[in-house]
Amino acid sequence: MSNTWLSDGDNLGVMRLLITTPTGNIGSRVLRDLVELGTTSVRVIVRDHGKLPQSLRRSVDIVEGSHDDPNTIAKALEGVDAMFWCQPDSIIAEDYYGFYRRFASAGYEAIRRKRTPRVVALSATGGAFEGKAGPITALREMEDILAPSGAHVRFLRCGSFFENFLWQIDSLRDERTFYYPMAGDIRHPMVASDDIARTAVRWLTRNDWKGIDGIPVLGPADLSYFEVAEILGKTLGRPIQFINLPPAEYQNSLLQIGYGKNAADALITMFSAIAQGIAKSESRDALSTGSTTLESWAEKNLRPLASVVSATP
């Protein structure tokens, strides 16, 4: 790419890295893995440093603020070799897609201003689609904004997170069900957050890549919700049923737990797009396929929370 900052002979030596959303689902894992490596200098942007674990606060440089502010990002990017970029989501944003564009535009401005060499950005699986597809469309708009920033960029196009099933832990434990507004026989990519973090760290700690590219980050196999129900049932020791909830009922359930209408609408359109195959466009190979199966993830993360299920006669 002609407007990037690095020449072929650049050698960065000790990596200086910036992590956004360091207390979030993926960002916290990326931060943990980098600190455990101990071979990098790590800085974070965080609204409230008190939300960082005490042990990590001593190991990182902290810039307090939000990464929808280009001045905050620019301050944090001073002297940085690579940045992990993660868009926060909002369940109450009045302009759902505009919320994503605001953060991405701030990132674009700061990256250009500080001439940041490399960016690894969290995105989502999904190809071309007529109309909106909720978070998938919002993340594609983020890609379009960041791509011409001048940095070399890798967009990690991830399947849906296994961790999403934790949001329905009460239903899984008490009713032995989980539900989404989509047919249960449609396979689509799912992946563990730990595998996503490991992929991000692998790219962040390398300085031998250039250009702009999308990198699939997928689990060992695409799964349908019927297959998920069977796997979770074996793990929990009880039959688990998947319920294809009508979109209006699913939307109402989101509104009841605090979602705004626009964010709820965005999720409905995302599931509709997944049902039409938007998430099947990414190619699977050894590098794009994570090692964590749903079975092993559920045994470690879901079974302890749903132990009442196993104990119920």
Keywords:
313 residues, alpha/beta, Rossmann fold, two-stranded parallel ribbon, 11 strands, 39% helix, disordered C terminus
Task: Describe the global form.
Answer: globular
Please count the helical segments.
12
How much helicity do the residues have?
25-40%
Order of helices and strands: EHEHEHEHEHEEHEEHEHEHHHH
Quickly give the structural class.
Answer: alpha/beta
At the fold tier of CATH, the topology name of one domain is Rossmann fold
Q: What is the number of beta strands?
A: 11
Average per-residue pLDDT, rounded, comes to: 91
Second-tier CATH architecture of one domain: 3-Layer(aba) Sandwich
Quote the beta fraction: 15-25%
Radius of gyration: 20 Å
Quote the distance from N terminus to C terminus: 62 Å
Are there runs of 5+ residues with pLDDT below 50, and where? Answer: 1-12, 309-313
Report the top-level CATH class of one domain. Alpha Beta
Q: Major sheet, described briefly?
A: 7 strands, parallel
* Order of strands in the sheet with most strands: 3-2-1-4-5-6-10
CATH homologous superfamily grouping of one domain = NAD(P)-binding Rossmann-like Domain
Tell me about this structure.
- By secondary structure, this protein is an alpha/beta fold.
- It has a domain of 173 residues: NAD(P)-binding Rossmann-like Domain (Rossmann fold, 3-Layer(aba) Sandwich).
- 39% of the residues lie in helices and 17% in strands.
- The protein is globular and about 55 Å long.
- The N terminus and C terminus are likely disordered.
